[in-house]
Here is the input.
Amino acid sequence: MIRVVLAAIGCLVLAAGCGEAPVEHIAGAQDALSRAKTSEAEAYAGDAYNMAADTLRAALAAKEEADSKFKLVRSYKETERLVARAEALANEAAREAHMEKEKVRGEVTGLLTGARALLDSAAVAIRTAPMGKGSKAEIELMKSDLAAANAAVTEAQADFEAERFVQAKAKLVAAMDRARGICDEIAAAAKKMKK
Here is the structure.
């Protein structure tokens, strides 16, 4: 009777401890992370993407740790838990990236319109700028700055068409700041001339 009980306990220990690594689940989580990367989650949902990647790395480390244990006491429960979490986080990062990308697309659309209007205003301001002693060199510098800002808007338009919205936004913000600076410089010079 004792032998039967010990044999039963031994079989239970063997069955419980001989778990297999969740290779298919790991592959599923890796695929989910790849899909998130393809959806540009690194750029548009960086925190969520990084959390998914870190969780997957932790799952792989847990698998390595379980692999290093004696087969009878090996358990992949922690690996399975982390893999499921990593896959869920990667899927959430992809959804978040899609929503953020659409939001930035809308912002860039508005910025393109605003930048063109602001550059037109700066061009008018340069043409009507007061001419005084030593101002010709300053006007030429402003024209050069305006040309660079126009080139940045053209590049931003190309980035927008290629769906590189983050890069387009950065270029547009810089171009608009420069155009505002030109307008402010000319307004200050005009005010000074009136005194």
